[in-house]
Structures are given as structure tokens and as C-alpha cells.
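Internal ticket #5521
Category: modeling
Description: The requester needs a full-assembly model to guide mutagenesis choices. All entity lines are attached below as received. Residue total reported by intake: 1464.
Assigned to: D.W.
Attached entities:
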Amino acid sequence: MNDTRRIDGRTNDELRPVTIERGWSDQAEGSALISYGRTKVLCTASFTNGVPRWMSGKGKGWVTAEYSMLPRSTNSRMDRESVKGKVGGRTHEISRLVGRSLRAVVDMKALGENTIVLDCDVLQADGGTRTAAITGAYVALADALAWGREKKFIAQKAQPLTDSVSAVSVGIINGVPMLDLAYTEDVRADTDMNVVVTGRGKFVEVQGTAEAAPFDRSELDTLLDLALGGAITLTDFQNRALEG
Amino acid sequence: MNDTRRIDGRTNDELRPVTIERGWSDQAEGSALISYGRTKVLCTASFTNGVPRWMSGKGKGWVTAEYSMLPRSTNSRMDRESVKGKVGGRTHEISRLVGRSLRAVVDMKALGENTIVLDCDVLQADGGTRTAAITGAYVALADALAWGREKKFIAQKAQPLTDSVSAVSVGIINGVPMLDLAYTEDVRADTDMNVVVTGRGKFVEVQGTAEAAPFDRSELDTLLDLALGGAITLTDFQNRALEG
Amino acid sequence: MNDTRRIDGRTNDELRPVTIERGWSDQAEGSALISYGRTKVLCTASFTNGVPRWMSGKGKGWVTAEYSMLPRSTNSRMDRESVKGKVGGRTHEISRLVGRSLRAVVDMKALGENTIVLDCDVLQADGGTRTAAITGAYVALADALAWGREKKFIAQKAQPLTDSVSAVSVGIINGVPMLDLAYTEDVRADTDMNVVVTGRGKFVEVQGTAEAAPFDRSELDTLLDLALGGAITLTDFQNRALEG
Amino acid sequence: MNDTRRIDGRTNDELRPVTIERGWSDQAEGSALISYGRTKVLCTASFTNGVPRWMSGKGKGWVTAEYSMLPRSTNSRMDRESVKGKVGGRTHEISRLVGRSLRAVVDMKALGENTIVLDCDVLQADGGTRTAAITGAYVALADALAWGREKKFIAQKAQPLTDSVSAVSVGIINGVPMLDLAYTEDVRADTDMNVVVTGRGKFVEVQGTAEAAPFDRSELDTLLDLALGGAITLTDFQNRALEG
Amino acid sequence: MNDTRRIDGRTNDELRPVTIERGWSDQAEGSALISYGRTKVLCTASFTNGVPRWMSGKGKGWVTAEYSMLPRSTNSRMDRESVKGKVGGRTHEISRLVGRSLRAVVDMKALGENTIVLDCDVLQADGGTRTAAITGAYVALADALAWGREKKFIAQKAQPLTDSVSAVSVGIINGVPMLDLAYTEDVRADTDMNVVVTGRGKFVEVQGTAEAAPFDRSELDTLLDLALGGAITLTDFQNRALEG
Amino acid sequence: MNDTRRIDGRTNDELRPVTIERGWSDQAEGSALISYGRTKVLCTASFTNGVPRWMSGKGKGWVTAEYSMLPRSTNSRMDRESVKGKVGGRTHEISRLVGRSLRAVVDMKALGENTIVLDCDVLQADGGTRTAAITGAYVALADALAWGREKKFIAQKAQPLTDSVSAVSVGIINGVPMLDLAYTEDVRADTDMNVVVTGRGKFVEVQGTAEAAPFDRSELDTLLDLALGGAITLTDFQNRALEG
């Protein structure tokens, strides 16, 4: 790795400033306003007693997620998907990623026949919105589960959370692997990877993409090292928010 | 009027606490995060040099608005309109109201061939979201116009703003007219009226609806008095935010 | 007010010729083809025993409305909303207005678990289509209620209609308030207001809009006077149609 | 054939009463309100100078059609296709049939670069709506062409109409071939055929369908005889309307 | 008729080479990959025990069909209807035709409360895709019925198939009637007719269309003769495929 | 690893039988019908001279892809996305993956202002459809590029292809890593990974997902080894198909 600083002065293995404002919403059963630098995502968890009809009677719960960007969260305004009348491919893809990531740390039997919907709405976007969404959604989820237990929708002895989960992006820019890309870095990256990791350091998702230049095995190894390092810090932020 | 206090201790002619966080967004040309009590609306103004093709060549600008609610801004989660694949009637109706209200204080000739889109996204809803959206959108609009002038898209001598504009709801609950209804008041109202007023005290919109009980001329007069009173206070908040 | 006649020779407080052809449809439980001058709206009322599932078991009925314009009801052809694949904002807004207006004079308990859908299809448009729709829909509604009683879906002693309802537009053109604007007047109006009034002279809806020039309190008062006057005449037309 | 009269007293080769109210619309360039018994269809022709971009520069015109039913044109109310967000298969199929049928009697070169849209909206349905639509649309089309010539959009010597066109349904009920089926007959028919015929007696469309019982060659021959007979009468009605 | 050979060397009453690959799919209860010359259609029959709720309890089954073209089945690529967000008129029309044609040879009482969906996907298109779809779908249907009997969803003595069914196109090109038009012939045809015929030689559908030139009774007769001749050969192909 | 054979007798590092039928379509500029065991995907490449308007004038080309499944490609019939009126999340996600994978081996400058659309339609599905689609689409792409060169839309010296590309799935079942999962294996996998690799052995995409059980670094390493091994064989199949 070269030793030049990044555009915002960070080292290559440094996260942007992270803040988690737990309980931002007065309405939702769990919520967090998370920021990774200028990226801000409002995550809410909606707890419903019961499951969709097709799942009913199996003694298991369901966790799903929806991701969306406000039209002017970005540098130039995007058309609303509601106005276009359809959800775009990128939105679909990220919603599915967030849902799978959270389900990976939930024991659906322990959840019981309850449904949790995680809404991740990007209020401001500067790269890494999907990873911030996952990290913030975990905090909202944890609070919604606590709410469900308090309301006795979840059995007292049940432990629906099997681990915590966070996510971060990594990428290779001009041959240099870096952690937590801001938007200006992201657009210049040869390879871009989103990594979802549990609190115990296991992988939930590894999504690496090389539009500009295919990457080899050793580059992949370096990226995974960076991501695992970032995940330790993010897990720490989550734990402090949930203790606060 | 009776003299009992309201559920939140306000008098009948009292607004909820109002805050306007101007410049909330780093991305938009103008923005404001406005709150009327627990109701919070993020308003952004997107300035584009040029107008839609069908308006081109007439030397006039265009101002339009889109209103939307986050799925869990409300007490129970609503489905996203993007997922349902269509914009609902209420959303359409409010988007149109916000756009008309702002256009009422813009001189389109002075704006020149520029377009401003106002996005009003309700982050938390507790009644009065459409009126908060109008009041906040005015602040975002004013900043976007200042930006356009600075960038020389608007002529130096042009005065696109002809007045300011704010909005507030009024209603009759158990026969008592009240200002700025919170959600729990709104659902119990016999008559509900949204009033949009300029800084000089003229009406832009008067939208009164009586599903539960038709209202007579004197009730209408009382409601208009309350609304005009509220508008004076709101105009003051706007002016202070824009001076800040 | 100035004393010059209007483009079609009317005085400022004069309605266009109104006709109501009751029972136009052989199929619907109630129907009326109403005209306000060249504006023609076919209103049908469809009576169904039962209510949507979400309302079931509460002993109350439901009244709703849909408004639409034929593609060539207007001077230049509009695309069909069915072909565009979505209902436009204006259509949504008017459908909701018509529904609310009619519900304001129906006692849902007295209606019992029955549903009435009012379809208002504009066959020819020359201004005031939404107000004609409301006035005509009342006639169709009254006949559908009579049909429901005859078929014993409504209890013999029940009085679902609490009042009658009609609507008319008023506006200010070149500073002059006028009643029942034709299309050529409507497009030149500084302020345009639709007023829905019960047979007893109470307001159900007051929707005033000032895109061109905000209006003051005394202008508003004059407009309301004109509307109340027009409503008396319209109520008379409705009563005669229903007696005929 | 048996000699018993039909439910409405007609003989098997008799049309229902036909009326054509030419020029019903004040707005369209051509229009006709046609009735076949209780079936009523409002046909308008919208003339536009110019053609869609993909046809431009070829010196040829375009004629197209859209068919639709009002929601309560039928015995029980249908949902609106605009509300459902898509045009149904039957509507599509009939719109295409009407368009093809009218194009069959138009010389597109003689029409020049002009577009005519025929809107056929069923106000009341009692069987045979598509055939009434074609017969009525021809009258609207003829008037729109006359309008185009008067406005000099069509060359003075050009003869865009090569023939007239009308349509009628025929069917076999309990083994008996019959002309112009009313709805109660149509639902009982073994075979149902719509036949579009020019004024000179040639076929434009023959669409025979046998859901209940396949038909043989001699039955087909009898049906075609009935249809050709009906077409002569319908052509006569069209000619009289256009002379009137 | 003239005696010149066609572009591909066929005589006017000659079909293109027909192949039927029965049981192409490992997944469906019945399937056939059929080709009429270069036209290739994959037909699958999906058997479900039970019927849609609105048909339930009547002791009758349901057969329906969906037709679709792959985007590059044609000479230039078409947009996918899924991406456009709606099914086009032509697709709707053909799906309905295929469904009606197959239902004409099924005794719904004998089928019992079972549903069969026929999917006809055009892999390569060179004219006559809808007729090939019908002919191939019959083979898939026959196998799905055999499967249903084997699984005891259909009573052992029941005979759901009342006949076989096949389809072929005929048309008039430069005044010459021809059988089974390839695409290059189809686009030049004055009249184009699709004829659906049972194995016993009765008509199920006759759909003749004359955009370019209306046709007379004797031309119609010749076309029907050609179609009946082609149907005999197609029935033979079906029988051999089902025996194989 | 345990040494028991898989359900179909393969070893853990063994691909299913692969066949590539190059030039399956008579219509497309490039095509391949590829099978991985019972999974069959028809891949076509449509070459268009020119690029979408927003890319025009930059001297660069564009490659995109659409993936879809026939409704009865699977064990139980799925509804068509065209009928549902929207493209599902999974379809969107895979279409984007296929497009990115192919773009990774195309030099857009060398392609010049030409567009290639890859359509991958799954005719039969038994696991691994997205990976088969990528491997087959490469063959179709190579032929379309050769066609473009022959037609002189691509410069003679230009080398648009920078490498070849193939894809394969790997997964962990009961703790055992395996190559190229069939459907019955896929549904039982704890971790499922799709890996896209160039002919030179570099990664284009690594997409690993752990819904059932998070995976550690050494498991990830084993999966990548299996995938790289499979890619060598697949590259060989591609080369032989293109030489054939």
C-alpha cells in the first residue's frame, strides 16, 4: 500500500466518522439514524404480531427490508420510483441484500410468528449507503425485538438474535485497496466490494464486482482483511449505541 | 370558545412548537428540516437551469413539488407507493397543493427559464404534514433562488419572489374551532381546513372539508381568523430562519 | 362589480342552463345525465348489498366515487388514463372530492352494510365538470337508495339521506367575482373556487385556489355569497328531477 | 330454422332498432351517438394535422381507434381499467378490430400526413358493442374527413374514403342462426361471429368463435348470409345519417 | 390460381415442414416443441388440482393459455413486455385465441375441478406463430390430461377431450390464395386468415382480416378449403406425435 | 471433505455435463443454447449500430443484458412478470449481474458506437441458471462481435474482447464445499456463491451469501478454489464451441 492520505485525510484502513442516533423515530418499534461521514440513513423497524398468510402455522417469524433513496439525497435529483411506477433494479437488489443480511442473525423459530420490516431510507448519499443501512438496521432490529419481548409477543426465554451484523465497503483505487469508500472514491474504483460480517467475524455476504479491472486472489485477500478490520469498529459502535 | 386546554396543553389559537433547520442537506440548492411538534418534514429545492421542452422559449420558469411519506413515518407502517407501483390519490392531491402554493409567490418571468423542484418528504407524521411541507418548502425555495442568482442563472435585478407563503390547518372539534391540529385531534375533527396564506396576509388556498358535519358561515369565519393568526407567527419563523 | 355581460350573455350571479335527465341508464340502480351549459356528465350509482371486507361487521355502509373524462370530452384529445396505465393527480383529486361530498349527506348507520359507487363520466367538458358531477351524483344516489329500500337491503324506517348536496364553481375574473365559470372563463380566472353546499345551506367543501393572484377576505366573502345563491337554484333543480 | 320469435319479438334476420345521432359532440371533428337497441356507443373522431414521428415524411396518414366501456354500462359494475392500471385483453382486442376495420376503407395516401383517432365509448351495453362501435365510428370518420378537407389539411381532389364500412354480429342459438344478438342471446350462443362488411358488400373482417360447439361449413354459410343482409340495412342508416 | 412456386418452393396448398418434439420439458406435465418451418414454439401444459376460487364448487375445470414471444425471436429485437410493464394488445389477443381454441375440445365437467395452463413461448418466429402454438398446445394438453388421470385427479371413466384441434393460417397474396404463410408472405398478404379446426373437421375459430383489400365470398370459400386441407395434415402430425 | 458421492453421482469438484449449441437462432447476430445438466438457457446477442442517445458522441459502445425465466421452466409454474406488470427483484438482480460480467471483458472504445443486448431466457431450470447464462452469453457475444466486424460496424484492427468470461456456482452443503449446485443441492446449501471468472483466471464477480450459516475465511478459500477449477473447464467448452 502507498502511504499517501486520501482525499478526506483518512488512511486506507480508516472508516469515516460514524454516528448512530438510536430511537430517532417516535413512531417505530425500533429506529436509528446512522451516518457514515456525509451518508445518512434513517432505519426503522416495524414489528407486527403475526406473519404473512403463506407462512402461517409454522411457528416461525419473518424479517424483510426495503431500501430507498430520497430523490434529492444525491448530488443531482433522481426521479421518484413511485412516480416512475416501478422499483428499479438497484433498489430491488439492495433491499434484498439488507433483508438477507439481517435474517442471517435472526433465529426465526425464536422470533415466533412475528414479522419485522426494516425500512432504510437514505436521507443523504455519499457512498456506502447500503452498508450504512445494514449497520443501522441492526440497531433498529435489536430494539424492535426488545419491544416485542416486552409486549410478550416473543417468549421470555427466546433468543431471536444469534449474533450482531454490520457492513462496510472496500475497493481498489489506482491499485490501492481502501476501506469505506466515499462517493468520489467509489466512482473511481476498479473493484468495489461490499462485505457483511457478524459480530463474531464470520461472513454473511461478500459481493465483489470488477467492472473496470478484474482482480486476482491476493487483491481479494487484502480487501477481505480491510473489511474484517472495519467490521470490528462498526460492531463496537453498535454495541455502544445499544447500551446508551 | 370553551377555555379547556387541549390534549397537549395548548390554547385553541396556539401553534405547536415550530423549528426550521435551514440548510439541512449538503446536496440540495436549498433545504429545510421543519417540525410542527412531532411532525417532521425534510424539504429540498432542486434548481435546474432550463425548463421542460414544452415550456421552452417562453422566457418563463417552472416550480413544481412532490410530497411523500416514509413508510414508517406514521403510527402503523404503510406500504411504499413505489412498491405498489402507483402514487395514491392523497399523495397526488398534496403534491399539487404544495406546487400551486409555492407558484403563487413566484414571478415566473423573473425566474427566467429555470426549473425548481420541491421535494417534501415526511420523516415523521403527527398531523399537519402538508401545511408543514408548504412552510418549509418556502425556506428551501428562497435559498435555491439565492443560489440561482449567485450562479447567474437568474438576472441580478430580477425579483422572482413576490411574497412569502406559509400554511396551517384549522378545524372544529366538538364544536370548538382550533389551530394546528395534531393527529389525535385531526381524526376527531368534524371539519378540517388547510389554509395557505402569503406573508402579506392574502389567501392562496382555502380547503375546507366537512365529512362529519357541514359547517356554517360563522364557523368558517372563525376558522379563517385562527388561520390568519397562525400564519403571522409562521411567517415570523420563516423570516428568522432565512436571516439566521 | 361591473355591469358588462359575460361572454355568453349571463349576469355575474347567473348559472348556465341546467338540465338533469334522471334515470338515463337502464342498467344502474340510479342515474342522471346532467348538463351545466355544454358540460355534460353521466352519473350512475351502483348499489351492492355488502361492504368491503375491512368494513364488515360494523353495521355501517360505504359510499365512494370515481370521476373520469372521456378522451375527447375536451377541445383537444387527451390520452386515456387506462392506456397511460395510471390515474392522474387531477382525476384522483376530483374522485375523492365527489366521494367526500356525497358521504357528507349520508348516514352510514342508516345505510347499513351496503355499498354505493358513484361513477361520474364527463361526456363533454366546458368548465365546472366536478361541480356538475356532484350535483348529478346526488340525484343518482337518491334513486339508488330508493332502490335499496325497495329491495329491502335498507331498513324501512332508516333515513340514510340527511340532506341534499349540490356544487358550483365561482371565480374572480379581472377583479370581478362570477358564478359557474365556463371553460373560457375558468382559464382566465385569478382565483377559482369550488363550493359544495347542502340543501339546508351549510358548507361541505370550500376549495379556493389562487394561482394567478392571492385573494383577500372580502373577495372570499363575495365568492361565498355567489356560491350559496347558486346552490339554492341547483337544489331546486335536483328536487324537481326527483319529483318528476 | 324454426319460426318462433325471439325474446324481443324480432325475426331471426332482423336488426334491433338502430339510431345514429350524428354530431352529438360539440368538441370533436366528427361524432355519432349510435344505438343498436339498448346498446349505446359514443363515437368521436379526433383529427390532427401531422402523423406520429415514426410515420413522418412518407406522405401517408394514420387512423387508429380506442374502445372502452363505462364501468356501469353493464348490468353489474366493472372496475375501471385506469384504476386497475392496465388495459384488459378484450378491450385491446376490440380497439384493434375497430382500427383495422376503419383503415380498410381509408386510402392513406389520399389522407395525407394527418392522423385520425376514433374513440368508441360504450355508454350502455346490451350485446354487439363492438359492431355498433364500427358502424358509428364510420359516421364520425366521414365527418372528420370532411372537416379536414374544409380546413385544407386534405387536398381538394383527394378521396380518402374508398368505401363505407359497417359491422354486425351473428350467432347460432340452439341450432338457429340469428342476426344482431342482444346480450341475453349472446351468452346462450354456441357460436358467435362478428362480421365487418363494406358498403359494396365485401368482407373486411370475419371473426367466428365457437366456445360451446364447433360449427360446420353450412352453418358458416348461413351466418355469412345473415350478416351480409344486415350490412345492407346498416349502410342505409349510415348514408341517411350523413345526408341528414 | 397461378402455378408459380412460392419463395421457398412450396405449392400454394402445401404446409411448411412440421415437427413436433413431444415431452421436450422435464418439468411440465405435458409439453411439445413444435416447428412450422423456421417458426418454433415451446408449448407447456401445467396441471393443477383445483380451480380458481370464483369457479370452485361447480364440479368444472378450467383451461387457459398465455402466449409470448422471446425478445429476439424476431428479425429485430423487441422490448420485453415485462420491462415495458404491460402486456401488449397483440399478445393479449393471441393468448385469448389459444385459450378459446383449446377449451373448445375440452369437456369441463369431465375435467373436474382441475386447472390447466398452456404456455406458448415463441423461441423463433417466421409467421404462423399463433397457429403453431395452438397445434402444439393440443399435444401438451393431451399429455397433461393423461398425467392427471394417472394421478387420479381425473376420474378413470371421464373423457375430457371431445376432439383434437389444430390451426393454420391462409392468405391471399397478389390475388393468389395460399396455405401456411411464412413471414415474408404474411407481410405482403392482402388478406390474412387464421383458421382453427377440430380433428373431425369442424370450425372452432375463423379470423379473417383484410387491411389491404376487402375480400369477397368466393375468395373466402377458397381460403376455407385450403385451411381444412391443411388441418387434416396437422391432425395427422399430432396423432403421430401422441402415439410415438 | 467427506468422500461420498453426490445425488447425481458427481464428485464435489465436478461440473454437470455441459453442452453449448452455438448459432441456435436463425435471427440473432450471435446465439447459444447452453445446458448445465438439466438447466437450459437460450442466449441471444442483438447487435445494433449506434448507442442510446445519452451515450452518443463519446466513441464508446454499450453492452447490456436481460435475464428471464419461462413460466414453466421450473417445477411449479410461476406467474409471468409481463402479466404481473413488473420485473421482480431477483430478475433485476441477475440481469444486472450478467450485464456487468460481460462488460468486464469488453473494451468499449474498441467496440465503437455500437450496442449489444444479451437476452438470456431460461427454458428449463435446475439450479445455476445465472451462471449458465453468463457462460452462454459470452459465446453469443463473441459471435455478435464477429458479425459486427464483418459488417464493418467495428474497425478491422479493433479488439473489443479483452478476455473470455464464464461463471459457476459453488456452495457448502452439510459442511461440504461443492461445485456447480443442482437445484436440489442449492435449496439445502448453507452458503451459496456465484463466481464469475475470466479466461485468464481473474475474478469479475464474487457473490457469496449465507442465509443459513455464516462462513469463515477458510471455507471461503475452499469455495474460491473450486470455482477457479470449474472456470478452467468452462473456458475450454467455450473455446471449443467457438472454434467448432
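Resolution: model delivered.
Comment from assignee: Chains D and A do not touch (no CB pair under 8 Å).
Ticket closed.
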